[in-house]
Amino acid sequence: MAKKVILASGSPRRKELLEQVGVEFEQRVSGKEERYTATEPKEIVKELALMKAENVASDIEAEKGLMTDTVVIGADTIVVLDGQILGKPRDEGHAFAMLQNLQGRSHEVYTGVAFLSYNKEGKKEVISHAVETKVHVHEMSEKEIREYVATKDPMDKAGGYGIQGVFAAYIDGIEGDYYNVVGLPVSYVYQQLKEICLMC
């Protein structure tokens, strides 16, 4: 029997990607604070993804008791330029500054994915992984940056842009998984779900 799948993320983009490949799941978000101790980007996203999954799992266990025949998927994406992590913009001025730094250059996007897979007896298996994609951004004028910021598209996205929207006009190319930049390396997630026998 297939396990119940829970996506521990409120991201509409991650929801859309999982739906796109036919995964049936429930979406849950934890309100608990997330702090990381790692220093390397790949380790940071793995730590945050695992924390999100564990927070949601503990919330569900507090409500319903022992978790069985369930897998919880946590994910976290960061944008890194010159070793500095660019989170979501605080305001439009911050978004403008981020994009001014990104334009005409290359940067890295890391997404961490964590799976908490519970068997019939409630025993948990943890799988954690991070995917890196390099993104090349075309040069942008100040006017182009301001016009993009005015769309409000940057405001809920790490790095201040969404590769799948209007900003596609400024993407010269990528090296790696496109969907990783959107927010979820969906092929990896799907294949991993198959391996832990959720699709069989």
What can you tell me about this protein's structure?
The structure is a single chain. Strand 3 and strand 4 (84-86) form a beta hairpin. The protein has a single domain (4-199), classed as Maf protein. The chain has helices spanning 12-20, 41-64, 92-102, 142-150, 178-182, 186-195, and strands at 4-8, 26-27, 70-81, 84-86, 106-118, 124-137, 171-175. The protein is elongated. Strands 1, 2, 3, 4, 5, 6 and 7 form a seven-stranded mixed sheet that branches. Helix content is 34%, strand content 27%. With 200 residues, the protein is of the alpha/beta class. It starts with a strand and ends in a 5-residue tail after the last helix. Its main location: cytoplasm. The active site is at residue 76.
Task: Give a short overview.
The chain has 200 residues and is an alpha/beta fold. 34% of the residues lie in helices and 27% in strands. It has six helices and seven strands.
